[in-house]
Amino acid sequence: MNLSNEKSYAKVVENGTQAVQEVENLRQSGYDHDRIFVIAHDSDKTSRIAEASDANNVGIKEEGVFDAIANLFRSRGDELRAKIESLGFTEAEAGFYEKQLDLGKVLVIAKKD
Fold first, then answer.
1. Which residues form the General stress protein 17M-like domain (predicted)?
2. Looking at the chain, which runs of residues are DSSP E strands?
3. Cβ contact 86:62 at 8 Å
């Protein structure tokens, strides 16, 4: 599923290989490296895909200090939804994407200017 809103573009892909390809497609279409993020349910998988694709993890810059600290005490699902919302998606959209991550899929997000 692709979704584009005023702030961000998102695509759910099946695996890390597809995520790397989608990151490359986004770069070729003009998105800057600093604006492309990958998220998987497992934080290690997220890091591996981000490294392989030269994309970013969602961090304090995107979440803000309060949410980054709060994520230390949240369940993984709550943490993922908060990260997705911090990139410009609604609570409902974040819930949908988090369910896709539960199924082992990977989310690629590109923030618009």
1. 10-104
2. 2-4, 8-13, 36-40, 106-111
3. yes
